[in-house]
Amino acid sequence: MILSGKAKLAGVLGWPVGHSRSPRLHGYWLDRLGIDGAYVPLPVRPEDFASVFRALPKMGFAGANVTVPHKEQALILADEVEPLAKRIGAVNTLVVREDGSILGLNTDAFGFMQNLLETHPASLGTLNRPAVVLGAGGAARAVIAALVDAGVPEIRLVNRSLERAEKLAADIGGPIRVQEWDWLDLAGAGLLVNTTSLGMSGQPPLDIDLSDLPQDAVVNDIVYVPLLTDLLLRAQARGNPVVDGLGMLLWQAVRGFSLWFGQQPEVTADLRDFVLKS
Ligand code: ATR
Which of 15, 112, 160, 222 to mutate for ligand 1's pocket (most ligand atoms within 8 Å of CB)? Predict the structure, then answer.
């Protein structure tokens, strides 16, 4: 690690933040690219977020990532917010500009789509069919914005809380059809994405019947612990192409890194292995 008094600084603001893989991910790129810089975990309680946010330029930070539970507050506090982040309703990347003002971005939508297309280039062909999205939380908002922008003709949205799904559909707009869990319609779909925490280690499994899902539909779980969730294993067993959630994390990080540290990092198989080992 190269670290001089002129090192560029970035980090991840979250509470708690100990589980975050971002320091390992950015640390890998800094190391491989020989950059004089550091990316550190920044555990910040919700009540302290605004003051820490305002201190970032004063402390010489080039920027930061923002994770749970601060993404909505970052949207409010940023001096300028990119239109996509406004639409999603959350900021996950901060860039400190020359004049000390803070720009808020959301790179999750890009991360989701890039992961899909890099893992299965053929996914592009399935985006002209309906997509089914499970969940209506922060991650779902980014996924759905990406699907709307990719021109997906119909997005069937299912969530435990119907009200939250309806709010998401109204906020983001586009061809979103809110459905009830019991009426989950997988027929004719080209893509199924799980954005809920179901299937994550320590959470209940995601219990859905895949029998109506076309066999060429791509199945993506944004959960990456475990890497192959029960949903992905069941989809794989019936012949569907599957995409795990780790790539979304890796790809969403690319833009922030290049803006803070001035070099374009690469997402490689070696990086995946390295991040997984943490
Ligand atoms: P994230 O930022 O990762 O999207 P979130 O905003 O907390 O996290 O959203 C979690 C998602 O998982 C939501 O869609 C949530 O459903 P509700 O909106 O009804 O809360 C869903 N989820 C979490 N636990 C669930 C459970 N036991 N059954 C069904 N859905 C669940």
Answer: 160
